[in-house]
Amino acid sequence: MAVGRDELYKALNVEINNKVAKNVILFIGDGMGPNTVTATRIYKYNESGLLTFEKFPHVGLLKTYSVDKQVPDAASAATAMFTGVKVNQKTLGLDANYQINDTTHCDNADSQRIGLTSLAKWAQDAGKSTGFVTNTRITDATPAALYARTSNRKWECNAAMPPRAKNCKDIARQLIEDRPGRHFKVIMGGGKKSFEANSPPNPKEQVEKSLCVRTDGKDLIREWIDDKLSNNLSHQFLTNVRDIRLLDTKQTEYILGLFTNGTMPMEYYRNKKSLGTPSLELMTETAIKVISKNEKGFFLMVESGLIDAAHHQSTARLALDETVEFDKTIKTTIELLRQLNMLDDTLVIVTSDHANLLSINGYPKRGNNILGVAGVSESDYVRYTTLTYSIGYAKSPVYTRQGSSVIRQNPTVSNTTHHDYTQQVGIPEETGLHGGSDVAVYAKGPMGHLFHSIHEQNYIAHAIAYATKIGAYHCEQQQSGNQSYTHLSSIYLICTLILSLLYFNEVTVLRF
């Protein structure tokens, strides 16, 4: 009774903040579907607990389908969120007129003007500082959607480009050479091999089969450093935890952090020593300190990309641990913004690009370990765990044949709570697949109430642009003497429609 009354009181006292958002931090939990959030909450705090972002006052849902698929990949999902336009599967920064492996946009002499623009460029055009942090590769699909235009998300370096794409720039080059990439104040993550040809291997790193290794002799890291030197810009190239700890965030304007040759290690396996790889929390905290010095504000994207990586391997505990680290990063961010006296001016959004196929099963007793056993199947009389995947990677056969019978493996013969335990799957695949359910979006700060119901995924970009008066929405007028929004004038409507053509490659129907 008391809990329900308390929740009602909080709901009745939610404040609507109509201020213009000076800063935006967009947190993306890759693959963090609704069941991942629920399971992590129970794993960390028990059934009645709440994660940090679940305490945000405004919550909505995003429909994640892409133009050509019911279930999206990270490239199409991130492009929708960052550009305001839904696109085809596996493409980045190109509208639905372009299919995967289409190279026609590269054959145009002015190819850099073809395609979509993102929140990063809109923020830069408004004079704001921009950056991103990821624990995947900085050329991976989600971060690449901020700055790249390519018909194949796998074209991370020159070695991945087919001969017919000779006129196309790989994703790594676009980050270093073009806007908005070269103007990011903060870039941190993994993926060094795509930037430095002949980069030596790290014997302590697990080699990724699909890792793109640069072969054209270019040293894009050197190019980044030379660009900053030639423009007399203070900068630092970071390679480990020690470099971050020694960084003078007050004096440094630009940072490029490449901490691993490929994807960064999961938190459980991460080398936490000074010469090891930094946590998502440390990278994010450092990024905010660097880009928050701009009086016009900043835009920062933070991706926890390894939640999805763990799900693809059916290792549920690792996925939950990554989500716990993600939530910890968000909590630290809120505390830092409060210390910097920026919390009231910052729109903080937490969401996901897509769901996964994790299921929470049966009727386990309250308080039962979420990684434990839920019950016994009435069909084969074999125990089953609370968490399973409908389709996913199976390290060992889930089903075996004994005579005319098919026997399901008994999970109680293994330690189901171990980090390397792979959950049972209904349909085995070489890797887990994505789920097509809606994902939640949580918001707090100026204009956070814009996230309030069921939205299309590309609504994210429109809401952020409107809240910050950037991109197609910078025509917005303010009443003198306060920061409340006025009614739309005919001049503003015309201005916005014209800018919609410029920024979204389509006339956006506005509803207010």
From TrEMBL:
Q: What class of enzyme is it?
A: hydrolase
Q: Where does Mg(2+) bind?
A: D30, D140, T142, E303
UniProt cofactor(s): Zn(2+); Mg(2+)
Q: Gene3D superfamilies of this UniProt entry?
A: Alkaline Phosphatase, subunit A (3.40.720.10)
Keyword Phosphoprotein tagged: yes
What GO molecular function annotation could you give as one example from this UniProt entry? alkaline phosphatase activity
Chain sites annotated for binding Zn(2+) 1: D353, H434
Q: Which InterPro entries match?
A: Alkaline_phosphatase (IPR001952), Alkaline_phosphatase_core_sf (IPR017850)
Entry keywords, A to Z: Magnesium, Metal-binding, Phosphoprotein, Zinc
Q: Which Pfam families match?
A: Alk_phosphatase
Q: Detail which positions bind Zn(2+) 2.
A: D30, D308, H312, H354
E.C. designation(s): 3.1.3.1
Q: How is the cofactor bound?
A: Binds 2 Zn(2+) ions.
Similarity field: Belongs to the alkaline phosphatase family.
Q: Which PANTHER family match?
A: ALKALINE PHOSPHATASE (PTHR11596:SF5)
Name of the protein in question? alkaline phosphatase
Species this chain originates from:
Macrosiphum euphorbiae (potato aphid)
Upper taxonomic lineage: Eukaryota, Metazoa, Ecdysozoa, Arthropoda, Hexapoda
